[in-house]
Design goal:
Layout (H helix, E strand, L loop, with lengths): L1 E4 L7 H10 L6 E3 L13 H13 L6 E3 L11 H18 L6 E4 L2 E2 L5 H15 L7 E5 L7 E2 L3 H10 L6 E6 H7 L7 H11 L5 E5 L2 E2 L10 E2 L8 H8 L8 E4 L5 H18 L1
The structure holds fe (iii) ion (2 copies) and zinc ion.
Amino acid sequence: MHIGSHLSASGGFLHMGKEALKMGANTFQFFTRNPRGGKAKKMDFADAQALQDFLMANRFAPIIAHAPYTMNACAAKTEVCEFALSAMQDDLARMEYLPGNYYNFHPGSHVGQGVPEGIRKITELLNVVLTPEQHTTVLLETMAGKGTEVGRSFEELGAILDGVRLPEKMGVCLDTCHVFDAGYDIVQNLEDVLEQFDRIIGLQRLKAIHLNDSKNPMGSHKDRHEAVGAGYIGLPALLGVLTHPKLRELPFILETPLDIAGHTQEIAMLRKAAADRK
Ligand code: FE
Ligand code: FE
Ligand code: ZN
């Protein structure tokens, strides 16, 4: 089982790997740059190489670099779309120093232009940014459908993927809080949700899971994460996702509102509960 949490990148790459190992994790996620602002730190190549060696030696699953929240690939304003394009290009260039990992982003918000225009802009950006030479798989995250978010249904994500010219460089990261908030009943009907995902997107394109509980009921379109077991999804349903035969090989990332000590406990609790279930 590969599980970890979101970590701060401020101490550098190798530091995150060591921190994750101490937490009982064997994957993790980090922001490529300030999640609200946009500036990236200077790249330390030796540190990136040291992390790659560490991940290999400790048999980590792929790690996930998360794009900043401010990035909107389908904004109405040209400058905002241009920032998304240059930030993603720059992030992917940096990720070449951590080859074989994932780069996850929120597809964007169409801000009133409509879903089809949002999908068109996101696809267009990906067709500029993706290259046949890159060693990173870019993941679209499933969204809760807050505001005008694009990617709140498997159909919307599937439409983006269908328009991409290098689909082998793309995948999906399923956020359990987001899909539940979007109206997918992973509590009562996980099998049915996975069947829909497989039919519309293809389960082979599912590369990672954000394992979060939700502060709100199904279909609320709120996107407020809760600690595992403390929200409306609940521990049994989240364990169902974690141990599902079609999902259990994936990296699972906790984005729950806890600190390092809290995530360490959450990881231990989930490992034990998953083992007890067998
Ligand atoms: Fe996210
Ligand atoms: Fe997420
Ligand atoms: Zn979220």
